[in-house]
Amino acid sequence: MMDFASLANQVMLRCDQLGAITQSPGIVDRRYLTPQHRQANDLVAQWMREAGMTVWQDAAGNQWGRYHSTDANARSLVLGSHLDTVPNGGKYDGMLGVIAPLAVVHHCFENGIRFPFHIDIVGFGDEEGTRFGSTLLGSRALTGRWKEDWQLLRDENKVSLPEAMAEFGLAFDKVGDATLKPDSVLGYLEVHIEQGPVLEDKNLPVGWVTAIAGAKRLNVQLNGMAGHAGTVPMDMRQDALVAASEMVLAVESIASQFGIVATVGRLETKPGAVNVIPGQVNFSLDIRSEHDHKRDAALQLIEEVFRDIAQRRHVDVNWQQTHHADAVHCDPYLSQTLSQAIQLSGHNAVSLPSGAGHDAMAMDAICPVSMLFVRCKGGISHHPGESVTSADVAASLQVIYRFLDAFSPDF
């Protein structure tokens, strides 16, 4: 009988150990192609070897381990997540998705349990994009979507991506060696903390993900007319900030109307003096949905409303799209198997979308994907307060094991 509680305690301890590998003392901060990235890879590789896995690091710096099937010619089921973090982040975002399946594989190894498929566990080197500003570098390397113009990316110290790779012992022009052949991969399962409050609100330890929201981001600029705060009458003003305020409220209203999420997270006012009418405002817009058509319809209406407000307020409005990622829907068979595994583990199999991006978005280009969310306290993530319980981790381990036991390579 599998002792999920003891395995969960081991997972918690290992997340503590990985969380201590940081480039900024006192906080969790581990970035792509740094000495701390290598140290994390080395530690995970050690644990993989102890679990009876064949270990390697690929041409993009991702850490791999394979638990071999009874069939040498079998295809692979990939499980994993990322090992990098945001600055001053938490110790479960990403890391849990590598260490949890590894604990299950270790148990299988010690008890002589094998499967009719290989189990590959991967710790992606870069998901957050913290160092070079472009996300999912690790997983996109596996799908053949590594971009040539990434050679121009530089970090805050002006170190280029090719230079950082060379320092790490890799070569920018050899990243193609990391690309996986789609016919070698059965599917991808990513275990991840929810990063939201839904599971906590439902008092459930785990849930399965229906889709990863597609997102668009825009920068919006309003140009009005700056003027003296005491001398320009209210009905003669071209106040860019008042117009922006109406627009922010419109974003909230339209998002609610369409059942999506939209956020104005940054707003800058110029000239920014206490006694000057704001002449220019720049703000960001992040809009997401698991249904791209809903997101795009909402955005179209938002743009129409922005133009109406600008005309009425006598300001000019311009916007530029800076990001576009379509929604990724999880595979029906993998999701069904995951849902059944949750039920067999004694829990209500609730489904929910992911509003945050994950490596599964990239992996969808080459194989079916699925995700298991684990409850996190207060929905807090990307923050030192990020927290999970050992009991919830134990629940996730049981689900992973039952998923592997039920998974058929012939689906």
TrEMBL record:
Q: What domain of life does the native source organism fall in?
A: Bacteria
Q: Which residues form the Peptidase M20 dimerisation domain?
A: 212-311
Q: Which cofactor does it need?
A: Mn(2+)
- Keywords assigned: Hydrolase, Manganese, Metal-binding
User: Which PANTHER family does the record associate with it?
Assistant: ALLANTOATE DEIMINASE-RELATED
Oligomer and partners = Homodimer.
Please identify the protein, giving its name as recorded.
Allantoate amidohydrolase
